[in-house]
Amino acid sequence: MSNRKIESHNIHIDSDYINWITELKQRYRSAQVKAVIKVNAEKLQFNWLLGRDLVRKKAEERWGTGVVEQLSLDLRREFPNADGFSVSNLWFMKKWYCFYTQKGANQILYQAGRELAKTKSSRLDREKLQQPVAELDMAKLHQVGAELPAIFAGIPWRHHVEIITKCKSVDEALFYIKKTVEQGMSRAALINCIKADLYSHQGKIVNNFTEKLPDLQSKLVQDVLKENYDFGFATVGHEIYDEAELEDALTKNVTDLLLEMGTGFAFIGRQKEVLVGGRSRKIDLLFYHIRLRCFVACELKAKPFEPEFVGKLNFYVNAVDELLKAPEDNPTIGLLICSNMDSTDVQWSFRGLGTPMGVATYNNIRIKDALPSKELLEERMRLLQKEMHTTKRLIRKKDE
Fold it and tell me: Tens of pLDDT along 238-253?
């Protein structure tokens, strides 16, 4: 049977048809997402119960120390096209179960699941959490290890492996699970967050957000901004450098800068110009945060905090609100990043200000002069080779 050619001019397309086809596309995409999440939740449920069995059955004591290797062999023989049955992966399943069933973990998991289920930050967050775990009974969490904790179902297995192998406590692990669910982080982004110890730094920035923003927005902003930024990807020419050189070093590596700022930041520009009263003013760095739905005006200072820095940042925040902010945007956030600060100085500087802002520090800027030159590295290699040659000759003489 020949293919029938369908031409758009054979039908009449109106606004109702366009609305309907748009709805169908969205409905299908939603079904795809739900299907993927459902499959992921079922696989995680299997891994959780397998880990539980290894613990509760005391498999190694009962069948010998090689039982995990044998189990891996039997499962791979039965399901040759399935992945996830390697010996190391089975050990991870046991470790996963043990990590979250240690003393005190049960109540922490139950409370975390309830809190995340109530999150109203976005429709996608609710869909990610609630849909895949609709069949999991939250009440069973009171029985330690009875079911896969509902909060786990929203992220892939390899994310879980990274978390349990790198985190020291259940609280820390749950912090990264929540971040992954809320922000849809890739495994690479998750690893970067753990490496940067986001758990220790995030939410502790000195700020006035609780007084100047609604409760939910305040919490979200504090979760997004850090108290300290690692600028180890940037290099300046000398130990004494100014804001312009620091800014230049950071913006040469915008990708690394955005990774350090965190998920959701979009770079708007460097030295972003705003015209106020016919006079040009320039903001060091301007970002827009997708999840917060607001601009973030950032001022850099290559020196310790001074109270007058706050006044300048306050001006820029107000300027962005007046000139760039759209009606649907949330209030602009001010972020001052300096080399050091005293929290009392900062808090006193905030008094009387109406704009939301926070003050953070940075570290690990690299100094170009401190890096060895190519010639110096070559000379060091020659000396090392000469030293190794001399050592070998002495060893040969000794053996003779």
Answer: 888 899 999 999 999 8
Least confident of 41-45, 137-141, 338-342: 137-141
Cα 111 → chain centroid: 22
Dihedral (CA of 265, 215, 186, 361) sign? positive
User: Locate tokens 């300027």: which residue?
Assistant: 319
- In angstroms, what CA-CA distances link 255 with 223, 250, 282, 342? 21, 10, 22, 30
- In which band, very low, low, confident or very high, does the pLDDT at 346 lie, cut at 50, 70 and 90? very high
Q: What pairing do the DSSP bridges indicate for beta strands 366-367 and 357-363?
A: unpaired
Q: Give how far the C-alpha of residue 164 lies from the chain's centroid of Cα atoms, to the nearest Å.
A: 16
Task: Determine the Cα–Cα distance for residues 364 and 231; give it in Å rounded to an integer.
Answer: 6
Q: Which residues face 357 on adjacent strands? A: 334
Ramachandran area for residue 306 (φ above 0: left; ψ -120 to 50: alpha; else beta):
beta
- CA-nearest of 186, 202, 194 to 168 is 194
Q: In one letter, which amino acid is 77? A: R
- What is this structure's pTM? 0.60
Greatest Cα-to-Cα distance within the chain, rounded to the nearest angstrom:
98
C-alpha–C-alpha distance, residues 332 and 213, integer Å: 10
Asked if residue 131 has pLDDT above 50, the reply is: no
Interacting residues of 400 by C-beta distance below 8 A, sequence separation 6+? none
**DSSP class of 140:** G
Question: Tens digits of per-residue pLDDT, 69-115?
Answer: 999 999 999 999 888 899 999 999 999 999 998 877 777 776 766 66
The predicted structure's pLDDT at residue 129:
42
Choose among 320, 361, 327: nearest CA to 342: 361
Comparing C-alpha atoms, which of 143, 187, 213, 172 is closest to residue 356?
213
- Arithmetic mean of pLDDT over the chain: 83
Residue pair 236/367 in contact by the 8 Å Cβ criterion: yes
DSSP 4: P
Q: Which residues contact 381 (CB under 8 A, 6 or more apart)?
A: none
- Does residue 136 surpass a pLDDT of 50? no
